[in-house]
Q: What sequence folds into this?
């Protein structure tokens, strides 16, 4: 009797183990009946199925999955070679289709790789390098994402995002960029230096000009002042001397003699000169 | 004492009271049940939050402290650290205290004007919505790293090199944060970007010297201008001083000229006054006085009038001064 109960419990346990199963928040499940999919379960929690050999639960990830694509060399429209490193975020949206077409994640990834790579190459081939690097990068990648999503749909896969992680140039192109950068900087440095020279010359020349003007103006003013003094003096003399011009001449001549005759002068006096008038008498 | 039964398990031996075995299976089941119920006890740390799942389905959140969930495998709990600020480094790695190693593969990037800069970035983030964070995506570390790198490069690609190196840094930082957050929201990661910090942004080391030379050229320019200004500041005041002194001198000349004229005139007037009293006498007196004053210092020869022919002989008398 005890044995029968034991066996019964064990059977119940086995039955329970194979018919009851849980679906995690991160999972989705396809129920297979003799290999034939019969049900898709996307709601997490406790679920039931027929015992093991009849029905089997196949679990798939329900989360956003990653795929890091290895860097590829791709040509842009203007025939420039770019090393493009991108990543893909994707999820299984239709586990049934997924199961029927690619089965496992590693296979799915190779499929995604093929699709994304060809879409990327096609799309980047339509744009010039500068667009890819700069303004249009996001737009381009949106297109690639959309097209990749459409192409992976038959596999039950949704490509959520294809994003360029890095866009680099091949080694030798990089060198030429460095050379260009260097040339550009040398140009700038020269520009600054010659601007400095120019400014400096300008300031110095302006300074010299201002100096000349200041001195010339001062000369002008000084001469005016001097002239004024001279004129006034002349006026003063003229007014005084015109009272008796004859006497002025006499007086001024004597003054002049005093000044011009000095010790170095040799004077020859004829006796009939005015000085000797009295002697001669 | 009750009899004991010896049970051999492997190479060790334990003795169990006979009574316990005769109790049958039910006490054992009871004890096991109690142990089983205890598997539901868990603690949530102060920096964590408890996320409880029943049969894999999210059921409730638990706050910090001692908590209970239905025993395994009915309910399980995950306790992500929600207050912790995590950090990732782009372009370099910290390898010990104050020691860094640059990762050029990550840090070198193209700018909008097709130049290359070397930029390093730190991203700080934390879990904002633990449910999304736990259940919506895989590889949080990798996702953060890839999204950060993609954001930074996209944003640097929008700017030219001079912006990236100087004034545009803050803008790049802000735009990167915005873009990164929008990507993470699109993936429904439940992650909040706390801060994005651009560390060093510099020209690549292959060309850094020419960049430095531009900086020193800028300095040279300023220096040259300063020197010229110095020259100006030296020359102009001097010129002004010179001008001032020229004018002052002229003014002095004017005043002296006038004063002298007035003096001369005053003297003349005084003499004229005397003269007009007795014209003839005064005239003679003035003449003689002048001669008295002049003649003593001179070398003189007095010759009779009308004998001009002898003038040459007279000159010979001088001895030293004479004709040869």
A:
């Amino acid at each position: 009797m005890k044995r029968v109960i034991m066996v019964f419990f064990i059977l119940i346990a086995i039955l329970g183990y194979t018919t009851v199963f849980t679906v995690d928040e991160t999972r989705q499940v396809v129920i297979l009946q003799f290999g034939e999919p019969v049900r898709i379960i996307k709601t997490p929690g406790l679920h039931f199925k027929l015992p093991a050999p009849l029905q089997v639960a196949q679990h798939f990830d329900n989360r956003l999955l990653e795929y890091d694509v290895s860097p590829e060399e791709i040509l842009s429209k203007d025939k420039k070679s770019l090393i493009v490193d991108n990543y893909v975020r994707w999820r299984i949206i239709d586990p049934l289709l997924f199961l029927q077409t690619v089965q496992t994640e590693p296979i799915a990834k190779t499929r995604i790789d093929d699709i994304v790579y060809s879409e990327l190459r096609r799309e980047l081939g339509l744009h010039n390098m500068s667009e890819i690097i700069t303004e249009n990068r996001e737009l381009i990648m949106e297109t690639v994402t959309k097209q990749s999503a459409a192409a992976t749909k038959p596999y039950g896969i949704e490509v959520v995002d294809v994003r360029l992680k890095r866009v680099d140039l091949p080694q030798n192109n990089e060198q030429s960029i460095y050379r260009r950068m260097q040339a550009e900087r040398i140009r700038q440095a020269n520009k600054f230096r010659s601007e400095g020279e120019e400014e400096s010359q300008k300031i110095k020349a302006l300074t010299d000009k201002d100096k000349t003007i200041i001195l010339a103006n001062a000369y002008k003013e000084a001469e005016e002042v001097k002239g004024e003094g001279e004129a006034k003096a002349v006026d003063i003399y003229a007014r005084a001397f015109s009272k008796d011009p004859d006497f002025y001449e006499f007086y001024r001549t004597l003054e002049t003699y005093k000044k011009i005759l000095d010790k170095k002068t040799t004077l020859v006096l004829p006796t009939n000169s005015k000085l000797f008038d009295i002697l001669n008498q | 004492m009750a009899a004991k039964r010896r049970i051999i398990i492997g190479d060790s031996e334990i003795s169990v009271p006979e009574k316990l075995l005769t109790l049958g299976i039910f006490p054992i089941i009871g004890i096991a049940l109690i142990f089983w119920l205890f598997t539901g006890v868990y603690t949530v740390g102060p920096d964590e939050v408890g996320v409880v799942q029943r049969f894999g389905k999210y059921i409730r959140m638990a706050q910090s402290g001692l908590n209970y969930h239905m025993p395994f495998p009915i309910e399980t709990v995950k306790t992500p650290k929600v207050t912790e600020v995590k950090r990732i480094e782009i372009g370099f790695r910290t390898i010990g205290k104050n020691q860094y190693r640059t990762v050029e593969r990550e840090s070198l990037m193209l700018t909008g004007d097709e130049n290359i800069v070397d930029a390093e970035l730190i991203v700080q983030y934390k879990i904002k919505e633990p449910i999304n964070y736990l259940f919506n995506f895989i590889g949080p570390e990798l996702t953060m790293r890839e999204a950060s790198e993609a954001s930074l490069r996209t944003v640097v690609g929008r700017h030219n090199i001079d912006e990236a190196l100087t004034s545009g840094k803050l803008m790049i930082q802000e735009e990167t944060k915005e873009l990164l957050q929008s990507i993470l929201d699109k993936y429904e990661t439940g992650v909040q970007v706390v801060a994005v910090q651009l560390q060093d942004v510099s020209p690549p080391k292959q060309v850094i010297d020419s960049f430095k030379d531009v900086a020193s050229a800028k300095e040279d320019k300023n220096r040259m201008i300063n020197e010229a200004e110095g020259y100006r500041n030296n020359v102009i005041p001097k010129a002004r001083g010179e001008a001032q002194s020229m004018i002052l001198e002229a003014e002095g000349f004017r005043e002296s000229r006038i004063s002298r004229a007035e003096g001369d005139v005053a003297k003349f007037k005084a003499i004229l006054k005397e003269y007009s009293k007795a014209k003839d006498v005064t005239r003679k007196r003035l003449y003689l006085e002048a001669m008295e004053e002049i003649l003593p210092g001179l070398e003189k020869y007095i010759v009779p009038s009308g004998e001009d022919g002898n003038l040459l002989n007279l000159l010979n008398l001088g001895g030293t001064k004479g004709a040869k």
Notes: Chain B touches chain A through 112 residues (CB under 8 Å).
